[in-house]
Structure formats: structure tokens, C-alpha cells
Amino acid sequence: GINAEYGVTSRDIIKGNIKLNTAFIAQLFNAFPSIEVEDQEDQLDDFDDMQYNEQTEIFFEESREEKSFRHWLNSLNFTPYVSYLYEDLRDGHLLLKVFDVLKPGMVNQDEINVPPFKPLQHVYRSVENCNYCITLGSELGFKLVGIEGNNIYEGSKLLLSLLWQMMRYYTLSLMKYGEADKELTEAEVVVWCNKKLKEDKAKKGRSAFKNFRDPSLTNSQAMLDLIDIIQPGSIGYDMVFPGNSVENKLENARYCLTMARKIGATVFALPEDIVEGNHKMIGLVFARLMNVGANL
Q1: Cβ neighbours of residue 196 under 8 Å, at least 6 residues apart?
Q2: Which residue, 20, 41, 224, 289, has fewest beta-carbon neighbours within 10 Å?
Q3: Does 240 or 203 have the greater pLDDT score?
Q4: What stretches of the chain adopt beta strand conformation (E)?
């Protein structure tokens, strides 16, 4: 209907080849960036929450939290690529690789069961790996009460608690503070950010905040101000909305995360995380901004 050749067949689309379909959509967007959508927002929102699992060859619904964790894991450049958390992590092998990144040397390589496993050994070897993950998490001070290796293998939502603590540890462990070269706490991140916001003569601490649960953070003003302080002139304030409506807050959050990445902050939060006041993800964004600002 649009008289264009893109090198993608209908069979490619049906099979769900992620790389080919991504390239196809990118080419469509470049060719028709201003195409109008007729009352299909709800359908598009539903599709945004879907993810394709190459192993089962089906689409499944994915929460924003799950998507953030998946993006973080894939940013570590491990193989195989994680497309579905509960399936791709159930043998514990990739999780053990991540633990070795969190604290290099803490994983005893002799205790790792490396897949693929023989059919009769799959459950045992996988659960053994997962149990080792729980042990390592406990050594790092994670709160894992009621979580067992078998929960990870069976695809329980309890996996999300482990992943959150791993991602948080990873973010904070990248940042060292003071002569003691100690890992930062969330309280220290809040203090550092507010100090920067209050020191700036132009902004005069207008967006200072109490903690990561502060409702004022949902309009992204504090993050935008901090980005502009870290890299002066980077924020075009004519593009920033007052943040009085959900729609305006979402626009601010999108702009904020884009500019955070532009100045070198690797963030995995989604705009909705900021607008809805997800204090965990908001805290990680500020931590990464501090990481960039403190190293300038």
C-alpha cells in the first residue's frame, strides 16, 4: 500500500525475527516520521508491553519493571541475549556471571554448572546454580528471606526481588566516594545532589528534594536541573513543561532520560517510573547522574 521494498517478507514478520523486524520498523519510521495514527493509542500501549520469546516463539506481556531489568542485564553484554527473564535465567548460569561482575572473584568457578545439561540432569544442575546465587546474594547483604533457588528455576516473581537488589548493588558499586574509596549509600546520593542544586547561583536550589520518595520529583525538574549543572547549557528549558499534568510530566521524563544518556549516564528507568514516583528507579537515575558529575 506504500509502494516500498524493505527486504522483509511476511514470513519474517510472523516468525518474529527481532533484528529484521526492528530494522523494518526503523525504515518505516525514517520514511514516514509523521504518519498519523487514528485512535489506536490503547492498542499501541498494549503492544508496548509485549515481548517476544524466541525459544517458545510466542509473545508475552512484560511489566515495566521486568523490561528495566532485562535492559540492564543485556547492557552487560553477556550471551545469550535475555528476551524473557523467567526462562532465560532459570538455569542460574547467567545470574552467576552477573554476580562475578558485581564483585569480581566472589564466584567460585568450580561450583558453576555450565549448560547445556543432559535432560536428566537439567533440573538438578539448574537448581544447584540458583541455590548458589542465593548464597552469593546473602554474602552481599541482600534481603532474600523466603527466596530459594527452586523459585528462580520455576519462574517465580520472587526473581524480581533478587534482580532489583543486584541492579542496585551494581549501580552503587560503580561509584566510590572519598579517600576511603567506600561504596555510596542512597543517603549520600541525596546529599550530593541537593548540594549541587543549592550551589548553583541561577537555580538557587529551587528543585532540592528530601528523598527519592519526594512527590516533587515526578515532574523531572530536579533531574533536569542536575543534568544542566553537570553539563551547563545542555538542557533547553523552553522544551520543559511545568509538569502540572500527567502528559506534561511524561514529556519531561522522556526528555530527562534522553539527556541523561546524552551526558553519559547509563540509566534503565522508563519515563513512567519517574512520573509514577518509583523511588527505586528514581534513586538509580540520580546515582548515575552523580557518577557522571563526580567524575568530571
Answers
A1: 226, 229, 230, 293
A2: 41
A3: 240
A4: 50-53, 58-61, 176-177, 182-183
